[in-house]
Amino acid sequence: MAKKAKPSVDKIVKKVNKEFEKTSSQIEGLINDALKQFDGLQQQIQDPVRKLLKDFDELRDREMKRFNEEFERRLNEFHELQSNILERLGVASKEAGEEVRKRTEEISKEAKTAAKKSAPKKTAKSSSAASKPAAKKASAKKAPAKKAPAKKPAAKKPASAAAAKSIDKSNLTLVKGIGPATAKKMKEAGITSIDQIANPSAADEEKLKAFSSVKGFSQFSAEAKKIV
């Protein structure tokens, strides 16, 4: 009976081994199929993601380029505006200086002419002092000669008036230390004239306190008085 049992055990072992190998091959096939499906699914997911990232990078580069171009254009416009303002202020100052210089030269010429005219009249008076009629004429001639120096202050008035007229007191940037941005904020706060900075009222002082943090604020009033 032992001899008959041995072959049956071998058959069973062989059969189990075959079944095991068959099952192993099936499992391996299922695993391979699953891996292939996973690879395909991963590929399907990666392609749209890669395309989305690529589109995002292109959009970002395009928007950054547009932003930089717009920023440079605005910056150039600001520089041009600043240059034009400074150029206009410089021209206005030159014109005012030339006007004052011309007036001063005219006053000086008038004073010299008056002095020359008064000199011979005094000598005529001294040479004809012996006769009373001549003395009366000399004194009559001397009277208008005395009025000549009085023209100096009268002539200076147009010069100062012209100089004052050429200064635009609403242009707050004429005050040293006040730039275009600060001037704009001051006008929005109600400070619209250099006079309000030079001789501020109580209300103006309250408005100006808002600009105490601006560099050189303590000198604004003194600089404004120089202009006024």
Please describe what this structure looks like.
There is one protein chain. The chain is mainly alpha-helical. It is 82% helix and 0% strand. The termini are far apart. The protein has helices at 2-127, 132-147, 151-166, 180-189, 194-198, 202-208, 220-227. It has 7 helices and no strands. α1 packs antiparallel against α3 (151-166).
Keywords:
228 residues, mainly alpha, disordered N terminus
How are the elements arranged and paired?
Layout: H1 2-127, H2 132-147, H3 151-166, H4 180-189, H5 194-198, H6 202-208, H7 220-227
Helix pairs in contact: 1-2, 1-3
Number of strands: 0
Strand content: under 5%
Largest sheet: none
Q: Which descriptor suits the 3D outline?
A: rod-shaped
Rg: 51 Å
How would you sum up this structure in a few lines?
Helix content is 82%, strand content 0%.
